[in-house]
Amino acid sequence: MLLFILRDSIFIFGPLFYLLTIRPTKIKLIQVIVLVILPFCLLLTYTSQLIAICFLFITASLLFYLFTKSIVAFFDVTVVLLISIFSDNLAQFINSQLTTNSYILEIFWFILCQISLSFLYKNCVKKKLSSLRFPFKMQLLLIIIGILTLGMFYINVFFIGVQDNKALTTANFFIQITYILLIVLAVTLLITNLNKMQAIQQKEVAQQQFFEYMQALEQVNTDMQKFRHDYTNILMSLKNYIEDEDLQGLKHYFYSDIMQVEKQTLFQSKIIGTLEKLEVVELKGLLSSKLLLANRLQQRVTVEIPHPISSVNMNLIDLTRVLGILIDNAMEASVEIADSVVHIAVLSTAQQSVVIVIDNVIHDTNINISTIFDYQSSSKGDGRGIGLANVKEILQAHANVSLNTRIEKQHFIQELQIF
């Protein structure tokens, strides 16, 4: 009994650390042993198996949720328990087909199946799922499906425990195979529909961004036409000051009237020119709207795009969400500082990757970078600190994207690299 508890503990919590990409530190291992494994063993000894298993599922889910701050932990705990049950039944089935039954061989088949299925789940299924954005309701639905499947499997386990024979083991194994195939089919259809919905949503975002960019371009064109139409009158008004040699009046008229009137036109024209090398419409629309917003807030923003950028290897909805949050945070922090400038650079590297850098000045250089991505972690008051937590959650679904956050001489720098 102790051998099987030790086996199950290692091959449940080992895969959880692996699947959720959590470093198994000494503190975390002690927490798992003290808060989950030891109480589970006591419950298994002095109460029913059902109570012990329910406790194991609830405490493991909550503990790994605290480790990751992600609802994905609940789903992964469910999957690992399902893999463990299926591996156990597969090991029993293989062992029952052999001429000699051996607990050592049964444990070997269990370990082999557990490791193989965990590896396949992380590198095939989980990798595919990470590229999709699941609404909270769908995440909840998948967790409920997983829990119901887990319950179904344990009912079969308890049934075998009452009537243990070779024929029943075989029948139960094939029932589980059929049930898994049906669940996989249902989840596949669900994910396919979600994929189609997100593709439609991405097209809508692209169209909206393109529309905003075209509006800005049209406005610049209209303003430039007005400027060309009025330039004769402007020159005539300047002529009077020149003939009267009224230099002070000329300066005042030029800077207070002409420059103020045409400042917006010149600024919008500069935006269009700056973004010319950015060929990704969604990013062009986002940056143009943020630059126009900065102009209304009287916040200086510079954009540098030295080389043409034709594509980005990241879901554009997620990318615009992340950049929108980072740019908004940078402008919000800078607008309170006199003469501050937000610098944005979109760079391409020799390794075919794209690097987006956002640099803004800050007052407080004692910010704890390790905690600013946690929910409700903000110095701006209650109800704040959600944006960067959302950024962290979005980026966790993209293995080819990294965010480097640092502070250098009162400059808060966010460097997003997309491989």
UniProtKB/TrEMBL annotation:
Classification via Pfam families: HATPase_c_5
Record's keyword terms, sorted: Kinase, Membrane, Transferase, Transmembrane, Transmembrane helix
Signal peptide: none
Presence of the UniProt keyword Transmembrane in the record: yes
TM ranges: 27-44, 100-120, 140-161, 173-194
Domain (Sensor histidine kinase NatK-like C-terminal) ranges: 314-418
Molecular function, one GO term: kinase activity
Domain of life: Bacteria
Protein name: Sensor histidine kinase
Organism: Lysinibacillus piscis
